[in-house]
Structures are given as structure tokens and as C-alpha cells.
Specification:
Length: 524
């Protein structure tokens, strides 16, 4: 399920290994999240030359990236090219929405149902559905009374035209921070509704310089090795020093240098930023000072300064000219912590203090039901008819190594809860998983085995380990409401879902299991 980075790579690898493979994709085109999230300003926060496949040398050499950080349209064009170049489309069913899947114990196969009544049967069900593919349900009071158009960033209409409109954006996470500057340039008036301010790091995006791409291509094998050897799955020039081991002047100079460089390298300013509260306090203070320097209206600047969680406890946002946008005369900020949202009206929204803000278009950048949403919206039944939705609603997404959940044989889950996934370069994590899954299936075929699933005790230990590792860091700290824990969804079990130890340590766990005959899994 899914024709994004995971699904396309799985199709190519497993088809090449001699399996019959069918990919089911709800969108009318390949691309996964990069098809749906085509809102203005959409861009990846990993450099283009790294946010790409490494498994084909010719593909690496022939594709021409044009910017340091790839825009949505460029990533989508790349994945479309991959689908064409490797003749993948013949095995992809587009516009096919899966509604459920049931494990048949008598045949050791999955029966998969689609919205239009089609049925498929398969030995293995590989859930390449992505971590951020199902939007959070909208729970805004009185939204049904609003009389204007409502747009959602996750399925932005290709023909949307907002020039000259009065627009309101709700949400200031990664999506909001990208869409706000892009819309501010074209709309007549922009109102930004903020609940929790975010730390926004400047992208410093630029066109690739002459000869820059050629230099990367010349050293691609070594670059990929460096990426795989970094906990984030992408090489950063991380500073090995701890923040409090140097004096204040060196700390400030380091932060300044990284800020000017932009992008995720800012997070590598010092080695202990996610482990030591004092170090994190220092980088938070630096960013708050920058906000004060950039934003001219100091009342607005104060509202934009995060103060309730460590930098990194929520996903760090990388965007272009976000803070600068609030200096534009057509942009205003509404902070609903200071002045709660009372309800929507036909012409806009009303605040608790009686203020009314009118607009003709509402843009919802309100986030996702991360990790589990794509699974729980389907009716997936494992052994004895047990519904995955019920299990995960009670206990959270328990897996072993993030790959398999006890009671759901032959259902494999690449790059999702229980693995580094969103805390890494997703393409690196995906390739790590595709390789491991392919090796597992080859081993099963060689030994005449039919089923694989997580061993319950191993699963419990892995979930405890993921939580334990997270609590060695500052990720769980503060009033972050982070979707890393599912805290953005009412009633969702609180469980730290990505594996914070990173790609390298996680790779050791994968290798340990494989070398011990896939310890932690039940093969039969």
C-alpha cells in the first residue's frame, strides 16, 4: 500500500527478486505525501542531493537537481521519472483506496478490499503508507458556519488562485511556516492564527552553483556512506563540543555561524542540544533573540517566541522568511493562547474578547494523525479477527523494530512508528528497511517458511526501549503537544513513536536480529 518513496522502492526491489508485486495507491499519481502536499511553498528540509535514492548509480548521475532544498514539484517530478524509468507503473493501481484487510489463517494470506469493491489476495501486506498521510480531524468551533472557501494544505487544489483574496491560515507548524510566506506575497490580506509558536530555522535555500551538482555526483558513493553513518541518516557537520564546555562568546559565534548557514546543520551546533537542558536553553535564547531582531513590532515578536518546550521537542521547522513575513503590512498575527478562538462566523472568526477577523478564504494547516492514522482509518483484522484499530487505540502502535506487530502476520511496516523514520532522512531509513525486508523474504523463501510476525515479549521490550531512549533526551520535555507522542490527537495513547537513537543504532538492532535467525520474530 502506497506509491511514495517506500512503495516504489519496494516494488522495484521485490519485483527484481522474483515476487509478484502489486502497489495500491489512492492518489491519481505516484509520489505519496509529495503528491498530496502541493501547497504554495512546500519544500523538503533535507538537501535535494540526499533526499533521493542511492540504489541505482545511473539514476543518481542522470537526475538534475536545481536547488539546495527541493520543492514539492521537483520531488514529484523525480518520483514520476523513477516510475517511468524502471517501468513501475504497470504494477501500480492508482486511484485505489484500501478500506480494509483481513488475515485468513487457513491460507496464510491477506485479503485486501478497496473502496470500489475490488479484492486482492497476497501473502505479504507491506504498509508503505507514510507517517504523515492522514490529516488530523478538524475540531474548530463553528467552522460549519463559515461562508467562504476552505482549503486544506494536505490536498491543495491545483487550480487554487488566491491573488487578491483575504486569507486566514490556521496552524504554524512545518506546513504553516512554509505556506504563510508564500501566500503573503500574493494575497491582499493574510491573518495567521497561532496557538503554540514554533522555532523556525531559516532554510537559506538557493540555486545550486555551477559545478556543485557535478561535484556531488563525483563523490556520491562516499556521500551515501557518510549519510548512512550519521544518526539522522544525512551527514551534518556536527560540532563535537558540548555547549556548556565553551564560553558564552564561542557559543554565540557558533550559533550565529549555523544560523547564517541555515537548514538542519543548525541542529548540529553542539553535541548535547537534545541531552542537556542548559545547552538547549542557550540555543532557545539565541533563536528568541533572532526573532526580536527580525520582527519589527516587538509585541508581535514576543508572541512568536516559543517558551514552553525545548527546541527539537516538537519537529524543528525549516522555512524561508517566516519571521520576516510579519513585517509585511498585509500580514497580521492572532494568538489564541492570549485570546482564545470563540467560534467561526459566516465572514470569519470571533475571539473571546469580542474581536472579529473577516476573510474570504480559510487555509487549514492543522497537521496529521501521525504514524497511526493511515492504519487505523482502515479495517485491518489479524489473527482471530482482532481489529488493529482497537489494539492500537488501547495500547498505541506496539511493534518489534517498528516492522511487525504481534497478531498481524506478514504485515510489514517500513519507516513508521518504532523506527527512526521522521527523526531521520526518510529516504535513508526507507532504503534501510527495504533492504532488510527483502533479505527477510529471501530467507523465508529459502527455508520454506510462510509467516512472520513480532514475538509478543520482544515487542513489549522494544516499545519500552524506544520510550527509554526518548527519555534520555529532551524530546519528551515541555508543553510541546508533539505529534511524536500523538499528543495532537484527543484520546490517542501517549507513546513516543519514532526511535530517537537514530539510524546507526537502529541498524545494529536490525543486523542483530537478522544474524540470530531473526530473533524477536516468530517465523513459521
Amino acid at each position: 500500500m502506497g506509491a511514495g518513496f517506500s512503495g516504489l522502492h519496494l516494488l522495484h526491489r521485490l519485483r527484481g527478486d522474483g515476487y509478484s508485486v502489486r502497489v495500491l495507491e489512492s492518489a491519481p499519481e505516484v509520489g505519496g505525501t509529495w503528491y498530496w502536499n502541493r501547497y504554495p511553498g512546500a519544500r523538503c528540509d533535507v538537501e535535494s542531493v540526499d533526499y533521493s535514492y542511492s540504489w541505482d548509480g545511473d539514476l543518481q548521475q542522470e537526475w538534475e537537481w536545481t536547488e539546495k532544498y527541493p520543492a514539492q514539484r521537483d520531488i514529484l517530478a523525480y518520483l514520476s521519472h523513477v516510475a517511468d524509468r524502471f517501468d513501475l507503473r504497470k504494477d501500480v493501481e492508482l486511484e485505489t483506496t484500501v478500506t480494509g484487510a483481513t488475515w485468513d489463517e487457513s491460507t496464510s494470506r491477506w485479503s485486501v478490499r478497496t473502496e470500489d469493491g475490488r479484492a486482492y489476495a497476497a501473502q505479504f501486506l507491506v504498509m508503505a503508507v507514510g507517517c504523515l498521510s492522514v490529516p488530523k480531524e478538524v475540531d474548530l468551533p463553528g467552522l460549519e458556519h463559515f461562508g467562504g472557501q476552505v482549503l486544506r494544505t494536505w490536498n491543495w487544489p491545483e487550480d487554487a488562485e488566491l491573488a487578491g483574496h483575504d486569507v486566514c491560515v490556521i496552524g504554524t507548524g512545518s506546513t504553516g511556516a512554509q505556506v504563510v510566506p508564500a501566500l503573503a506575497e500574493v494575497v491582499a490580506r493574510l491573518t495567521v492564527v497561532q496557538r503554540t509558536p514554533n522555532f523556525v530555522i531559516p532554510t537559506r535555500n538557493r540555486p545550486l552553483a555551477e559545478g556543485e551538482l557535478e561535484a556531488v555526483k563525483a563523490e556520491y558513493p562516499e556521500r551515501r556512506r557518510r549519510n548512512a553513518g550519521h544518526s539522522a541518516g544525512v551527514f551534518r557537520s556536527d560540532n563535537p563540543k558540548n555547549a556548556m564546555e565553551v564560553d558564552a562568546a564561542e557559543r554565540q559565534a557558533t550559533f550565529q555561524e549555523r544560523w547564517e548557514g541555515g537548514g538542519i546543520n543548525f541542529l548540529g551546533s553542539f553535541a548535547d542540544l537534545m541531552f542537556d537542558q542548559a545547552a538547549n536553553d542557550a540555543i532557545c535564547s539565541f533563536v528568541r533573540e533572532k526573532i526580536g531582531e527580525i520582527v519589527e513590532d516587538q509585541k508581535v515578536a514576543e508572541l512568536l517566541k516559543p517558551d514552553s518546550y525545548p527546541l527539537g521537542a516538537k519537529r524543528p521547522v525549516v522555512a524561508t522568511d517566516y519571521y520576516e513575513t510579519f513585517n509585511r503590512p498585509n500580514v497580521s498575527l492572532v494568538d489564541v493562547r492570549e485570546n482564545p478562538l470563540e467560534a467561526f462566523t459566516e465572514s470569519g472568526l470571533a475571539l473571546a474578547n469580542g474581536e472579529q477577523h473577516d476573510f474570504d478564504t480559510l487555509v487549514l494547516a492543522t497537521g496529521f494523525d501521525a504514524f497511526t492514522g493511515a492504519f487505523t482509518k482502515m479495517e485491518i483484522r489479524g489473527r482471530d479477527g482482532v481489529l488493529l484499530r482497537d489494539v492500537w487505540q488501547e495500547e498505541g502502535p506496539k511493534t518489534f523494530l517498528g516492522l511487525s506487530s504481534a497478531g498481524f502476520p506478514n504485515m510489514l511496516m517500513p519507516a513508521n512508528a518504532g523506527s527512526p523514520s521522521v527523526l531521520s532522512n526518510m529516504v535513508t531509513s526507507i532504503e534501510q528497511h527495504v533492504s532488510w525486508i527483502a533479505d527477510l523474504l529471501a530467507e523465508m523463501r529459502a527455508r520454506g517458511l510462510r509467516t512472520v510476525e513480532a514475538e509478543p515479549q520482544a515487542q513489549e521490550k522494544w516499545v519500552e526501549h524506544v520510550e527509554e531512549v526518548a527519555h534520555m533526551t529532551l524530546w519528551p520535555n515541555g508543553d510541546s503537544g508533539s505529534w511524536y507522542r500523538g499528543a495532537n490527537i484527543a484520546g490517542k495513547p501517549q507513546l513516543f513513536m519514532p526511535y530517537a537513537a537514530g539510524v546507526v543504532e537502529y541498524g545494529k538492532a536490525l543486523e542483530k536480529s537478522a544474524k540470530s535467525g531473526y530473533e524477536g520474530f516468530v517465523l513459521a
